[in-house]
Structures are given as structure tokens and as C-alpha cells.
Amino acid sequence: DLHLSLRRQRQMCIRDRFKTMISKTYKVFEDDSNKRIDKFITEQLDYLSRGIVQRLISEGSVTVSKKKVSKDYKITEGEEIEVNFTDIESKSDLPQKIDFQILDEQNDFLILDKPAGLTVHPGAGQKDNTLINGLLYKFPDLGKIPRNGLIHRLDKDTSGLIIIAKTLKSHTRLTKLIQSRLIKRRYLALVHGVPIAGKTINKPIGRHPKNRLIFCVKDGGRESITHFKVRERFDNFSLLEVSLETGRTHQIRVHLKFDGHPICGDRQYNKITKWSNSSVQEEVAIQGLNRQALHAFNLSFNYDQKDYSYESPMPLDLISCIRGLKKNL
Q1: pLDDT tens digits, residue range 285-326?
Q2: Less packed terminus of the chain by CB within 10 Å, N or C?
Q3: Contact present, 192 and 223 (Cβ < 8 Å)
Q4: Positive or negative, the Cα torsion across 129, 134, 140, 141?
Q5: What does the mean pLDDT of the chain come to?
Q6: How, if at all, do strands 159-165 and 294-303 pair?
Q7: 171 burial via Cβ count (<10 Å: 0-12, 13-18, 19+)
Q8: For position 90, what pLDDT does the model report?
Q9: Active-site residues: which are they?
Q10: Edge to edge, what strands does the sheet with 67-68 contain?
Q11: Cβ neighbours of 320 (radius 10 Å)
């Protein structure tokens, strides 16, 4: 009886570690055609290892157009992939009192205005004092949702708008919207140089071969598409409006550097401190930045047949920098 009781307690503890069943559906676009299905799913669900994904496939928890496949199956444009799995609850993300602004709260989602300097979620380099820790303090039920409701990310030193799902159902729906490129994101970027006109940068991005902490344009990387137009020109710098079709890590920073217009204040991707033709006034303005001059100012999407659009004003540090550049005109 004691053995049976201990066994039941162990089973309950194991069961308590798991949350509800999660179902994800993806449509295959042209750029992912002929890709192995295990690689594709790992890219979509980056919090699951490739080994776990392969196990799900072997268990029949992954179907392509309603049919079971093998882990080395090559997907084709137009196919629909469904993934069903039981999410494991994370015990490492602890509630902490963190300051951030909530622009809007709906039944299904939150719209936040993240300040520069705040990391979005705990990771290897930072275990706490993140936006997710602050969200769990204000909204404990987010701990029951995959990734604590996170739909997309912003770099630590990028400011601006971010959307958080409040329910399991909305997390699935909003994730599908962003994967289908139906959540529009626009940014303001202050860059070195003066582009002649706006353009589209369509270059694949992958991890840097020597520095695994950064990314670069490389053959064999993931498809990445960035659009920009010029909002304002200064002597040697420009303010760009940037929009994304894809959402790769550091995408805007990598693409703009590749295009010859690195983001001001981005010390990770831009080691140059003194630029040719720049004045002392300009250098003082740029050096006053303590982060990359990138701000997510607009989010727009349709949810439940209703259009939503949110804007965040330019932060004071970027306004001050631009004023310094204008004095040089």
C-alpha cells in the first residue's frame, strides 16, 4: 500500500509538470519548400530541441495534410503541417516587480511599450529581472501559457511595442498570425550614412561563423526580408522607417549593416566610433546613445475581425540625439 501510494504521488508530480495539450498549424510557403520537416518545426518552435521534434514525428504527433510522415520528409509549398504536443511548464521564470508600460489590455492579449535596457525573457546570460518576470508578477496566469504568452521578441536595447497573449487559444492564433506575416511591425532606425532612397533587403541570415553571439548575411541562412524608406536626412546620418516581413534575430541590425548603413549606437554590430566627414557635434550626439537607435513604433493586425493599430512615441534619448544632429545642419 505504501509503495502504491508513493507511486501515485510520483505520477501526480509528473502530471503536475505538464500543461494542457498544444496544437500548432503551419502553412508551407515557397521559401521553406523542400526543407526537412524536423528542421522546419524546430525553426518554428525554437523552444523545442530537434531531438524532441523528431520524437514527436515518430510518435505520430506531427502530420502533413493529415498524414503521418518520417523525420526526413521534405515539405512542399502549400502543405499544412499540424504539431500536437504537451507543453512542459517552466519553473525557472519567477515573478518579479518590474516597471513597464501597458498600452492596452484586451481579453486575449496585452500591448506593452518596452523600454530600452529591459531584456524580454530569461536566458543563459540573464536569469531574472526581465520583462517576462515582470509579466508573471502582474499576470500570474501567464505561467500556464507556452513561453508565458510571448509571441515575438525585441532585443534588450530595442525599445517599443510588443504583444503578449493572455490565453492558450490566443497564443496559438497570434502565433499563427505572425508566422503568416499578418502582424505588421514598423520601426524607426537612426543609421549612419544617407541612403539615396528606400529599398527592400532580401538576404538570408544565419549565425556568424566565428562569433556565435551575433548573426550575419550568409548563404544557407534563413530567409529574411526587410523594407525601409527614408523619413529624414541629416548631414551624415538618416532616420529610416523599417518594416519586417520576417522576424529573424537581429534582422534589422544585420540587414542595415550589410547595406552599409549600420544603426547608430549598435556597438555589437558597429565598431566604428569616428566616421569620415562627421562633425564633432554629430559625434557627441551619437556617442551620447547608450543603446542601438532602434524603436518599434507601430504594431497593426486584425483579430476577431477587428483591426488594431498601436503606436509608441519616439523615446527621449532618440529625440535628444536627433536634435544634436540637426544642430549640425
Answers
A1: 888 899 999 999 999 999 999 999 999 999 999 999 999 998
A2: N
A3: no
A4: negative
A5: 86
A6: parallel
A7: buried
A8: 47
A9: 155
A10: 18-27, 80-88, 62-64, 67-68
A11: 12
